[in-house]
Design goal:
By secondary structure, the protein is of the alpha+beta class. The protein has one domain. It is about 40% helix and about 20% strand. Strand 3 and strand 4 form a beta hairpin. The protein is globular, with a radius of gyration of 14 Å. The chain starts with a helix and ends with a strand.
């Protein structure tokens, strides 16, 4: 199991890489993009997510997701199918493009940041 310190360090490293390599959240412009998931094309931006809060404005949510593929429907972390449905819901609710990136990644779960 990963320690909290290791998880925090990996998230910092991802942020540094995102800044250095100019990595941005994945842009969703059409429902077809969501319907073709998985695989999920979201980059790991770590703590660089704070930069996107400034650049893109409103982060509308953080989604807690299972990353192991072993999650169950009744757990707090979204499963693959639940994540796809949640992205569709956000897409329709916001009537505009969405930007999505992994902002925190642990051993079995992750957080996706969603900007409009």
């Amino acid at each position: 199991m990963m320690s909290l310190a290791l998880i925090e360090e990996l998230n910092r490293e991802a942020g540094d890489k995102a800044r250095t390599e100019d990595i941005h959240p994945y842009l969703i412009k059409t429902l077809t993009q969501i319907n073709n998931m998985p695989p999920f094309p979201f980059p790991f931006v770590g703590d660089a997510a704070e930069d996107f809060d400034i650049r893109y404005g409103e982060r509308i949510t953080n989604l807690f997701c299972d990353s192991s593929g072993m999650g169950a429907e009744d757990e707090p972390a979204l499963t693959v199918n639940q994540l796809v449905e949640k992205l569709k819901e956000l897409f329709f609710a916001n009537h505009e493009e969405l930007r999505v990136a992994i902002v925190e990644h642990g051993q079995f779960q992750l957080y996706l940041g969603v900007w409009k």
